[in-house]
Amino acid sequence: MQHKPDILLVNVPISSLSYPPAATPLLKGSLADVGISSHILDLNLDLLTQTADDYSLYYDFFSEAVDLDFNQKEKLDAILDLWVEKILCVDAKWLGISVFTFQCQLATRMLLAKLKESLNCHGQIILGGAGISTNGIASPYNDFGAEMLGQDLCNYFIRGDGEKALVELLTGNEDYPGINNDNYKQLPLDNLPLPIYDDIINHNYQYQNGTTLLPVNGSRGCVRACTFCDIHTHWKKFTFRSGASIAKEIIHNYETYNVKHFTFTDSLINGGMSAFRELLNDLVSYYEKNNYPDAYFRFSGQFIVRNKRQQTEDDYTLMGRAGCYNMMIGVETGSDEVREHMRKKFTTDELRFVLDQFEKNGLNCYFSMIIGYPTETLFNHQETLDMFTEFQKYALNGTIIGINLGATLSVDEGTPLYMEMEDLGLEHLVDTTERVGINWKLLTNPDLTLEERVRRRIQVQEHITELGFTVWNGDSHLKRLLKNYESIKQGTY
User: In 23-172, where do the E strands start and end?
Assistant: First the structure.
């Protein structure tokens, strides 16, 4: 960094260690497009560097799964002091902090408190990202951005698409939609400048076998409205880029940074099928033009199950040729009945077709699950166990590479479940907390107590482990669940 930048862009823990952050490079690209200089400080990776062998402990702390002892707290305090020192050394007029998800809130809160303590911190602090307006399973905050502003820990927060809003704010327009309010504008994504990763390309970010990945943002929002999800509170509508635009970015990043593996940060990679097909065809054409083999690039993303008419066998063949891998599928349950209540628009039979196509075309995936949905009966729970028993063959042949079980269902503000609690007969157990979270019961399904949900969650992990499935972060999620369960029993949740 040769010159003092106009703004220092900081991403805080915790997010993936498999690939660099997406938001700050996108902001850097948009700022550079109008002549505003910026530098990215990656504290997410710095946490790994500073904690080394005990990184997992601090990861669990920031996800609010464990507490720290005295020595560990002292070590974390020293890390925070170092972060403040690094920020102040840049001496930028503006400081932008990317709060990627609710799991970044605790680190952000602690960093802001440290910055406030420093008499030398004169910069204007801006918060942005989905994490400023989400409750999250592990967070007690109703409106993080507004709360930090109210506590005088920041000067501004930005909701929604941040690229244009940040430029407007830095050039003097504080009244632009989304700045310190909810009235944000969604942008035409094809018009956004390409992200710039010059500050953070680092091979310490690695996926499997030392693979270096870069993120891609192809859409914002979601085409579906699952009852447990609050994504609609972040994005008013589903917007997506053209396939040609996405292919252009992938090719650019390969030619600029020599990276051949990518991961989509979208809620769903196949939300717009025409754009998805265009992306796949453009990549295959690029391989053919350059005499590259099929799947020369590899890219992962969240994938929704569509029926055979919406996504055909030819589409899956094209996915294999283009380089799709590690698709995340929000399966949630083995019960069609429960899935219908969730407003998930597919059946287990349609999922079977997808898995058969994945196996046929050399594709793989992992499942995201919810154990203990309000309407889940013991019979429905058994359907989930039976589904995994049936799908064992896909785990053994590498089609299903992992299962994310999460903790158990949290009913959070902004979700349809929360807004429809009374109609659904969901009762908030107010004796221990003002926040619903995992502390609820369904009047029409009284056997599904929190204790029973914990039991089912443990049973599923034990069952699928015995079958040979790989459980991703299973112990970490279970730690958080058990900690919250104990807090509820003690009235301290």
Answer: 38-42, 94-98, 124-128, 156-158
